[in-house]
Each structure stands twice: as structure tokens, then as C-alpha cells.
Design brief:
The protein is α/β, with parallel strands linked by helices. It folds into 2 domains: 261 residues, Luciferase-like domain (TIM Barrel, Alpha-Beta Barrel), CATH 3.20.20; 57 residues, no CATH class. 51% of the residues lie in helices and 18% in strands. It is built from 13 helices and 12 strands. The strands form 2 sheets. The chain has an 8-stranded parallel β-barrel with strand order 1-2-3-5-8-9-10-12, surrounded by 8 helices. Strands 6-7 form a two-stranded antiparallel ribbon. The termini are close together.
Length: 334
């Protein structure tokens, strides 16, 4: 069966997310991922998903290394791994300076170091039950779990889009979570991962490549593209990292125009600068048949697990997620 995941980031409420994950499992999805930004608590939602599913892998995409302490992340990850019978994948990332400071009141410094140190602490605590750590960004005198985890080796993936972050994945992670990839991304990333992995004596073949792909399914391709335009304008306007990513994908002029419009507070103009080509290059958009073909193209490009990430807000968000899940399900491809 073709490997495919579903990611949920905003839109449906926590109970609706659980329903969607149950549906995804019934249709053959390999994994379900929950983001955390302004929605419900991802670990609580995934724990609820664990109680209502039996096969589907459950992951965070991603959990920020800044807004929870490293021991808290380890406790949450160990808990969901236990409740799911070992079906949990911990996806970590540094999030964004534009969010961490203004929204959480936490200083955003040395993101790669913070991520590396968090990985070491989380793994040590889950595997050994106790940790002491003296690092550049994190210092822990002593922390111990008051129970013995049944799952000592929780898979740990890291998010990354640029070479230094990709290299860190190659050195320490079990997998990488890309986002807004093009069909050219996987080949470059696989090479970068391999170089980093070999430099520390790791087998690069054991590092899985996944990517979050904004997804919109409609009867008309134009309508599907239009539905993704606000999301891309937001990511390109609000997050400098994603603005740089889109520029590197070949849309430098558009990215600059979106950033300038966003800076002056003109979101409508920002959306107008998002072209169909930008959306098409980094997304899954179109009729069900077109979307399934695009997912397969990502697989053929070297992505191990394409992860659909529908963009839907408002009262019909759950229905739009469900439409995407049904349209691109492995069972729909047979």
C-alpha cells in the first residue's frame, strides 16, 4: 500500500481532529500528524487519537523546543508512546522567532543548539529515566521519570528546510520533516542528509524523508488553487524563513512583493502577489485525480512519506479536511 500521511494544523477542533484521524486510519493512511500553534494541545489530541485507533502512526509536526521544557517534551512523548502501544513519532523543531518571543514570551536564541540539546535530553530521559545536562542553552540539575517507560526508543524527527538544519537531522534524527517542498527538493536533501550522517558514522539509509504538503481538493482546479492562496500569503509574509524558502524555489520577486505588502499591513495585496505557479510548485491542489497524481509525483521524486496538510478554516473546516483525506487515500488509488 502507498505510504501517505495526513497533518492537521488549525481549522477542526480537537474532537473533530480525532474523528479525522480515525477516518484516515480506516482509509489506509500510514500516519497522522498534529501541529501546535494556536489550536488545541497536540499531545492531548494525540493521546485521544491513540485511544480510538490501533494501527496508524501518530506524530507531532512539529513540537517547538522553546515553548515546552525538554523534560516536559520527554514526558509528553513517552506518555503518547505508551498509550498508543509504541505508535508515536516525536517531531521537533525550533519554530520561528516571529512566534516564540511575541506569542510565548520566550527568548529565541541559538535555535540549532537548542534543538540539538533538546534531542539529547529527551532521548536520555526516555531511555534511562533520568537526566543531568549542562549545555549552552539548557541546564538541568536532575530530572527523573517516576515510572519506567515501556517504549524506550521513540522515533525522533526534526523539521528543517535549509542546509544547517538538514545537516543536524542527518547527525541526530531518525527522520526529517520538510515543508512546502518542490519535486526537486528530495534529491538535494537526501544528498545533504547522507553527507551529514556519514560524517558522524550513521547510516543515511535509515533516515526517513517526509514533507508537509499544503493540500486542497475541489471539483475545479482553479478553486483548489484559490483556497491555498491565503495560507501561502501568510507563510510567505509572516515568516522570514518561508519567504526565503519560496525565493530559493525560484519565486524571489513574488516573495519580496508579498513581504513588502505584509509589512505595510496590506494582506489583500499580499494574496494577490501569490501566483498559481507558486502554489502549484509547493502544494497538492486540484481535482481528486490531479491530487493523487501529484502525490505520486512526490513519491517518485524521492519523498518517502508525503504528508497532506489541508488548509481549511471556518465552520466547514472538518468537511474540507475529510474531502482531502478521502480523495487522496490509498484505497482511492486502487
Amino acid at each position: 500500500m502507498s505510504r501517505i500521511g495526513i497533518a492537521i494544523s488549525g481549522g477542526p477542533n480537537p474532537a473533530e481532529i480525532v474523528d479525522l484521524v480515525v477516518l484516515a486510519e480506516s482509509l489506509g493512511y500510514e500516519s497522522a500528524w498534529v501541529a501546535e500553534g494556536h489550536g488545541g494541545d497536540q499531545f492531548a489530541i494525540l493521546a485521544a487519537c491513540a485511544m480510538r485507533t490501533s494501527r496508524i502512526l501518530l506524530g507531532t509536526a512539529i513540537s517547538s523546543v522553546y515553548v515546552r521544557s525538554a523534560p516536559t517534551i520527554a514526558m509528553a512523548a513517552s506518555s503518547v508512546a505508551d498509550l498508543s502501544g509504541g505508535r508515536f513519532i516525536l517531531g521537533l523543531g525550533s519554530s520561528h522567532k516571529a512566534q516564540v518571543g511575541p506569542e510565548h514570551g520566550v527568548a529565541y536564541t541559538k535555535p540549532l543548539t537548542r534543538t540539538r540539546e533538546t534531542v539529547e535530553i529527551v532521548r536520555t530521559l526516555i531511555r534511562e529515566g533520568q537526566v543531568r545536562f549542562e549545555g549552552e542553552t539548557i541546564r538541568i540539575e536532575n530530572f527523573d521519570l517516576w515510572y519506567a517507560p515501556r517504549n524506550r526508543d521513540v522515533p525522533l524527527y526534526l523539521s528543517a528546510v535549509f542546509p544547517k538544519g538538514i545537516a543536524l537531522c542527518g547527525e541526530v534524527a531518525d527522520g526529517i520533516i520538510l515543508t512546502r517542498s518542490t519535486l526537486d527538493t528530495a534529491a538535494t536533501v537526501r544528498s545533504q542528509l547522507a553527507d551529514a550522517a556519514r560524517s558522524v558514522g550513521r547510516d543515511p539509509g535509515k533516515i526517513e524523508i517526509t514533507t508537509l504538503l499544503p493540500t486542497s481538493v475541489a471539483d475545479d482546479r482553479g478553486a483548489a488553487l484559490a483556497a491555498l492562496r491565503p495560507g501561502l500569503a501568510f507563510y510567505c509574509g509572516f515568516f522570514p524563513r518561508y519567504n526565503k524558502l519560496m525565493a530559493e524555489h525560484g519565486f524571489a520577486a513574488e516573495a519580496a512583493a508579498i513581504a513588502e505588502a505584509w509589512q505595510r499591513g496590506d494582506r489583500a495585496a499580499g494574496e494577490r502577489f501569490v501566483t498559481d505557479a507558486m502554489i502549484d510548485a509547493t502544494s497538492i491542489a486540484g481535482t481528486p485525480e490531479q491530487c493523487r497524481a501529484r502525490v505520486e509525483a512526490y513519491r517518485q521524486s524521492g519523498i518517502d512519506v508525503p504528508i497532506l496538510s489541508p488548509y481549511a478554516r471556518g465552520a466547514d473546516a472538518k468537511a474540507r479536511f475529510e474531502a482531502a483525506i478521502r480523495a487522496c487515500a490509498p484505497s482511492a488509488s486502487r
